[in-house]
């Protein structure tokens, strides 16, 4: 039985297991129909031209991990940003781990999707927001059909959340192959500000496929800073579908740090529904081996006087492949839009590949839109310059790569997060020098 | 200290150096002059270990050791320093961080611990004062947006930080106004001692008024065709290089 059939038949069982709320039930049923009709995307679709799911779909995934798996904090501490106080929502094989988490209902909700989907007090919010940002593509629909657990965050208005929130999804690999479909919903009301860090991590080498959906709503003048750390094992694949709906004068930024995993696909979508909105999309990708990272972004400018800034840096070694597909749509009404997009890449191996494609659809006539992509090698003259000062080849390369990524790193607002990323980069590059750029 | 014997070097099958012989002893200052395209910068790059250049014949000895098989960083660790004619811009790396990394990597190669932060700061302060460099300058990205003069001053600042045994100054005077020239020359002179040596590569005699050479060599067509004392530099300034070319071609 292939994965699609397996998922379709599991859905019937799944739908009987969960508490039935009419609204959510209908949404799920509609979603499974979409998935049934469309199936998994193939390379024949324009948006998937350079990324094939064929290989990873062949595994015999367990779609409902049965066991409760306990992990000790000390074994996974290193995956947390642990040097600062944070809220934590932790899942193990898709199931909530209360002893590793630190949630709150004090003046805001930092808790679980399973509660939000089933408890009556959240019903209105769920009806207003659940599946209202996600598009009806097959993978998001698949996630919607199975959505039962993940992070639920609601920040009411005028609240500055002082501690960052970490969302961590661990897979233990106790099953021979695991498929996970976490679903996160984040609603930030007027004038509020929150910082969120998300990470998916498998703890052994058994194959894992995560198809995640995160919906984020930033209401009037809200500020959301979202950081994604993707540094998983070489048998873990991630399809990350993130949808952000912004109301007027809100600022949303997403930083995606992609350093590992077998196949990573980021579908990052911004919808601007108001004036004077700012959307920021930044990323650093550093991969090697046969890894594959695909950034597929969309910024939809619907109203006037808004901005978007995209800056993606990629460094590709060995046999790795990268894709950047950045789409900007500026509607006719969206005059005075400022939309910028940059994608710069360095290939450090003859066998590495990058496919980069900007896509601009502009229907307004008074806009500033720019895009640029570059593909290059490490600057040889800079290498010689550094080496002539006593910096060895490997360290010189690393320093150049840091410098190359610095624009993105410097906009990370949590210092400990920046340090952590710097450290991961140093590990990735196999150097041990205290760069503090 | 430096002994170059019958050095031939080529880049992309084009032979540029065709048998250089040069000996530089500790405490000496040598000037290498010559018309454009004579191979001056190539000689500097070959001594510093630039990989594009292939040594096809001859060898380079530094303090009694063959260095032509060593990587650029290994030569730097042994005390070879090249002040670049065109210092490379490295956006995103500050002058301070670059120097910290360079010094600590050199120490690591010698089996020493990192320099304590306090000492590093003191050293940076001392040497930046010597080159009359503003502190703000040190937190800027290396050479990015620097004026010609700032770039050259920064090169000598790096030399002061690294305290090399052999400093090769490749056209350090180009792009400098007279004040900057004085500051740079003053810096070089203060760093000079009986234990180190300086090789100055220049087109013009101007810099040699400040950094006075013990020996002057003329490079032409990849060979040293004439050597003398500082008077030779004056003669070249007056008469140009044509008479040398005629002598060689005769």
TrEMBL record, chain A:
Organism: Flavivirga rizhaonensis
NCBIfam families: sufD (TIGR01981)
PANTHER family: PROTEIN ABCI7, CHLOROPLASTIC
Domain SUF system FeS cluster assembly SufBD N-terminal, chain residue ranges per copy: 23-167
One Pfam family recorded for the sequence: SufBD_N
Protein name: Fe-S cluster assembly protein SufD
All copies of domain SUF system FeS cluster assembly SufBD core, residue ranges: 174-404
Family according to the record: Belongs to the iron-sulfur cluster assembly SufBD family.
A GO BP annotation: iron-sulfur cluster assembly
InterPro entries listed in its UniProt record: Fe-S_cluster_assembly_SufBD (IPR055346), SUF_FeS_clus_asmbl_SufBD_core (IPR000825), SUF_FeS_clus_asmbl_SufBD_sf (IPR037284), SUF_FeS_clus_asmbl_SufD (IPR011542), SufBD_N (IPR045595)
Automatic annotation (TrEMBL), chain B:
Pfam families xref list: ABC_tran
The name this protein goes by in its record: Fe-S cluster assembly ATPase SufC
Family in the record: Belongs to the ABC transporter superfamily. Ycf16 family.
Keyword check for DNA-binding: no
NCBIfam families (UniProt xref): sufC
Alphabetical UniProt keywords: ATP-binding, Nucleotide-binding
UniProt-recorded Gene Ontology molecular function terms: ATP binding; ATP hydrolysis activity
Domain ABC transporter: 2-246
């Amino acid at each position: 039985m292939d994965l699609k059939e397996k998922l379709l038949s599991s859905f019937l069982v799944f739908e009987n297991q969960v508490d039935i709320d009419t609204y959510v039930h209908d949404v799920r049923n509609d979603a499974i129909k979409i998935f049934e009709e469309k199936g998994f995307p193939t390379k024949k679709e324009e948006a998937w031209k350079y990324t094939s799911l064929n290989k990873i779909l062949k595994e015999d995934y367990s779609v409902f991990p049965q066991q409760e798996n306990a992990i000790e904090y000390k074994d996974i501490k290193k995956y947390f940003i642990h040097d600062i106080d944070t809220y934590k929502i932790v899942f193990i094989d898709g199931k909530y781990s209360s002893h590793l988490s630190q949630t709150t209902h004090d003046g805001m909700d930092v808790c679980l999707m399973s509660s939000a989907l089933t408890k009556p007090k959240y019903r209105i919010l769920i009806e207003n927001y659940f599946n209202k940002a996600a598009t009806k593509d097959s993978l998001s629909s698949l996630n919607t059909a199975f959505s039962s657990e993940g992070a639920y965050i609601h920040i009411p208005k005028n609240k500055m959340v002082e501690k960052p929130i970490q969302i961590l999804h661990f897979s233990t690999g106790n099953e021979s192959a695991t498929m996970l479909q976490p679903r996160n919903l984040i609603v930030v009301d007027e004038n509020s500000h929150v910082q969120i860090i998300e990470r998916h991590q498998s703890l052994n080498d058994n194959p894992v496929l995560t198809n995640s959906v995160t919906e984020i709503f930033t209401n009037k003048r809200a500020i959301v800073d979202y950081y994604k750390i993707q540094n998983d094992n070489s048998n873990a694949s991630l399809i990350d579908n993130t949808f952000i709906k912004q109301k007027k004068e809100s600022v949303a930024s997403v930083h995606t740090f992609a350093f590992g995993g077998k196949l990573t696909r980021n579908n990052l979508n911004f919808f601007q529904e108001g004036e004077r909105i700012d959307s920021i999309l930044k990323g650093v990708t550093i991969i090697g081996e046969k890894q594959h990272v695909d950034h597929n972004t969309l910024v939809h400018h619907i109203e006037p006087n808004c901005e978007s800034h995209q800056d993606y840096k990629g460094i590709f070694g060995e046999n790795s492949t990268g894709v950047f597909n950045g789409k900007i749509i500026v509607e006719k009404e969206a005059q005075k839009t400022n939309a910028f997009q940059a994608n710069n890449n360095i290939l450090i191996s003859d066998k590495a590949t990058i496919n980069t494609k900007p896509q601009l659809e502009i229907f307004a006539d008074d806009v500033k839109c720019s895009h640029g992509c570059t593909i290059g090698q490490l600057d040889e003259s800079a290498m010689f310059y550094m080496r002539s000062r006593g910096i060895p080849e490997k360290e010189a390369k690393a320093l150049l790569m840091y410098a190359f990524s610095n624009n993105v790193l410097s906009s990370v607002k949590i210092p400990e997060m920046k340090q952590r990323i710097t450290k991961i980069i140093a590990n990735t590059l196999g150097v041990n020098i205290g760069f503090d750029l | 200290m430096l002994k170059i014997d019958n050095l031939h070097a080529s880049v992309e099958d084009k032979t540029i150096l065709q048998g250089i012989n040069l000996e530089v002893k500790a405490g000496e200052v040598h000037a290498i002059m010559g018309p454009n395209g004579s191979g001056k910068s190539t000689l500097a790059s070959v001594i510093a270990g630039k990989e594009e250049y292939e040594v096809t014949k001859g060898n380079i000895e530094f303090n009694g050791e063959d260095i032509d098989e060593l990587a650029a960083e290994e030569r730097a660790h042994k005390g070879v320093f090249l002040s670049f004619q065109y210092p490379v811009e490295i956006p995103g790396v500050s002058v301070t961080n670059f120097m910290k990394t360079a010094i600590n990597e050199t120490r690591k190669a010698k089996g020493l611990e990192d320099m304590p932060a306090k000492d590093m700061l003191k050293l940076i302060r001392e040497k930046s004062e010597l080159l009359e460099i503003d502190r703000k300058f040190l937190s800027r990205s290396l050479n990015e947006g620097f004026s010609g003069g700032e770039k050259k001053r920064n090169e000598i600042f790096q030399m002061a930080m690294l305290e090399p045994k052999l400093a090769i100054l490749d056209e350090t005077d180009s792009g400098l106004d007279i004040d900057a020239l004085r500051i740079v020359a003053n810096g070089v002179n203060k760093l000079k001692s009986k234990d180190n040596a300086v090789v100055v590569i220049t087109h013009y005699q101007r810099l040699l008024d400040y950094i006075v050479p013990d020996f002057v060599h003329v490079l032409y067509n990849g060979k040293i065709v004439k050597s003398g004392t500082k008077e030779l530099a004056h003669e070249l300034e007056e008469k140009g290089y044509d008479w040398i070319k005629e002598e060689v071609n005769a």
